Amino acid sequence: MIEILYPEICNLYGDNGNILFLKQTFTDKKIIYTHIHDVPYFVNHKVKLIYIASVNDENLKLVINELSPYKEKLQTLINNNTHFLLTGTALNIFAKKIKNEKEQINGLGLINVNVIKEKERKNCLYKGTVKNITILGFKSQFQIINSKEKALCQTNMGMGNNQKDPKEGIKKNNLYATSLLGPFLILNPIWTKELFKELSYHKKLPFEEELLDAYNQRLNEYIDIQKKAQK
Amino acid sequence: MQKSFSFYLAFYYYKIILWLQKICKRENKIYPTFTNIIFKICPDYLKIIAKPNKVISIMGTNGKTTLCNLLKDSLEQLGYQVINNNEYSYNTGIAHCFTKYANLKNKCQKDYAIIETDELTCQDIFKDMTPDIIVVTNLFRDSIKLNDNPSYILEKMKEAIPKNVKLILNADDLISSSLKQDNTIFYGVSKLKNEPNKNYIVKDITLCPKCQNPLIFNYIHYNHIGQAYCPNCHFASSKPKYLLTNIDKDTCTLNQEKYPLINNTIFNIYNETALISTLKELNFKPFQIKTTLSKINITLSRLTEYNINNTKMICLLAKGQNPVATSQVLNYISNEENKMDVILMLDDLKDNQNSSETIAWFYDTDFEFLNKENIRNILVVGPRSKDLYIRLLLANIPKNKIIIMLKQEQLPNKVNLDGIDTLFFLYDIYSLSLARKLEQEILKRYGEQND
């Protein structure tokens, strides 16, 4: 089963696209939606993937509180190579500390990451590499990340975890976390196909040709933008 | 003395800029390089610049431009002299507007200023001026690059809105209605007859703001707009002083009084409710309001209709990067039963100028509303059409209904009015001039054929 945690509040910035794509691929029969105040499915059942999408600062504390009783279970799942996908600001939930102007919030501390909220918003297009796959996306965030974990990908264009760190996101066993926003799975069909293979899905992706066509157009645009910037 | 000197230096500097703009016939444009200098010379310029007798500030994610236009038109119909900042909603736009209408002695002879005010930067405005009334239409998620998320914007507004101002808030929006303070009036729209129950992707508030338990909605007009309560702590939406209870073909009823209906889309019903509420708070009598409403329209740039050989072409603004506004337009289209084609030209050309564009908002937008039998073709136009094509496919719209074209110039030749009753043409706010050009080419093409 695939568990989507708290979709009613973890759904900002077009991350709904990931939920929609998981639903199209695996169908509703294989997806569990866990809502706030419910016991997560992973507590008593085996799950293949846990997905959490972007959450705002106000609800971040609520989600951390909700998951705190299950921190050890989550740690065990990470250690046992269960897949996790955290997009946008969802990685803050698993971080050690989240510091903003007013306060410092303790995250679940499941990844060796500290998040710092800054005043200035950082918008950028993003291009990075993981193995031989080019990752494309965009960022629009106030926060930077200081991470001592392995990265999800190496940055070629745009901002990595912070202005000085060219690494982007987190990879801890099979936990994948990225600050890239929006429909990450749809924007990166090659990476998504690899992820789905790890989840024992070996068929074609829904609309695979169309996804690759749009991906290649974007890739060429990003390369052009990069070339212009280098000139 | 120092303050006065710096003010008049900034004031006369900008009067000269305005005079030069007038000579160059660029009177209504704002050049931030020039306007920013005003605040460099005199940081509290907005405090000192002359203002009309009453200043009404309009804020909110969606509807503020329409409401500003409606309120301006209404007050003019009522015989008043009204100024507004023509969508330039930052402090620079407001400084431009007030300077333009102040005489050389810094006196303003106008009656009302209707000021469209940016939510994110309103601190820069309200630190120096307190409007007589602030109307807030709603708060939703908006462009990621500009607005982050609604709770972030709400906090910025809470910090900035002066405590002694009269607030007119939407009771059906649990986000913006939490701006409530001592002098607050609420307006709302009750459940309407035959209103379909639609499921929207985006609901920016689902949990009780007091105890974080799931809210129960008595009814929802769209997204999270409706009346809700918390079964756990009994928190509930505010009760409106002005409640619109019924709409017929041409009229609506607010607090038992009938008014002409300006437009029957739910977002414009809210705009009209906010308009009547504001006019009432300004002490206008129902008969004055009724007469006024019968004479005003939604601004042309937002909705244009043509008749081409018995086929209607309806051109609608669908703010790109703004999922709720676009979903509302898609909802409006989906309520039509005619045989139709739909053109989607939603790329943000401003964003596209220097980079590839963020398409995350496609996935917060209810393109599922277009999955209807009576929609023959959907023409997707612009650089991001391949991405939008995928979004439509994921909304289960059949491939054979979708036509994509990367270049906008291809559109007029692809339009086929044969066999349809209506052609909807949706365009982004930054594509307005391009949309107008394409509209004319479509008209010309069919005009030439008729000849």
Labels describing this entry:
heterodimer, A: 231 residues, alpha/beta, six-stranded mixed β-sheet, 7 helices, B: 451 residues, Protein-Tyrosine Phosphatase, Chain A, nine-stranded mixed β-sheet, 17 strands
Summary?
By secondary structure, chain A is of the alpha/beta class. Chain A is built from 7 helices and 12 strands. Chain A has a single domain (2-230), classed as 3-Layer(aba) Sandwich (Rossmann fold), CATH 3.40.50.880.
Write the layout of secondary structure elements.
The complex is a heterodimer of chains A (231) and B (451).
Chain A: E1 2-5, H1 16-26, E2 31-34, E3 49-52, H2 57-67, H3 71-79, E4 83-87, H4 91-94, E5 97-99, E6 104-106, E7 113-130, E8 133-147, E9 153-157, E10 167-168, E11 170-172, E12 175-178, H5 184-187, H6 189-198, H7 208-230
Parallel strand pairs in A: 1-2, 1-3, 3-4, 4-12, 5-7
Antiparallel strand pairs in A: 5-6, 7-8, 7-9, 9-10, 11-12
Chain B: H1 2-23, H2 32-41, H3 45-48, E1 54-59, H4 64-77, E2 82-84, H5 91-101, E3 112-116, H6 122-126, E4 133-136, H7 144-147, H8 150-160, E5 166-170, E6 184-189, E7 216-222, E8 225-229, E9 242-247, E10 251-254, E11 257-260, H9 266-281, H10 286-293, E12 303-308, E13 311-317, H11 323-334, E14 340-345, H12 349-352, E15 375-381, H13 385-394, E16 402-405, H14 411-414, E17 422-427, H15 432-450
Parallel strand pairs in B: 1-3, 1-4, 2-3, 4-5, 5-6, 6-9, 13-17, 14-15, 14-17, 15-16
Antiparallel strand pairs in B: 7-8, 9-10, 10-11, 12-13
Major sheet of chain A: size, sense and barrel closure? 6 strands, mixed
Corresponding CATH superfamily of chain A = Class I glutamine amidotransferase (GATase) domain
- Taking all Cα atoms into account, the compactness measure Rg of chain A is 17 Å
Major interchain interface with per-chain residue totals:
A-B, 42 and 31 residues
Low-confidence stretches of chain B: none
Q: Tell me the domain tally of chain A.
A: 1
Low-pLDDT segments of chain A = none
**Distance between the terminal alpha carbons of chain B, to the nearest Å?**
71 Å
Q: Provide the CATH topology of the largest domain in chain B.
A: UDP-N-acetylmuramoyl-L-alanine:D-glutamate ligase
Q: Briefly note the structural class of the backbone of chain A.
A: alpha/beta
Q: State the name of the first-level CATH class of the largest domain in chain B.
A: Alpha Beta
Number of helices of chain A: 7
Number of domains of chain B: 2
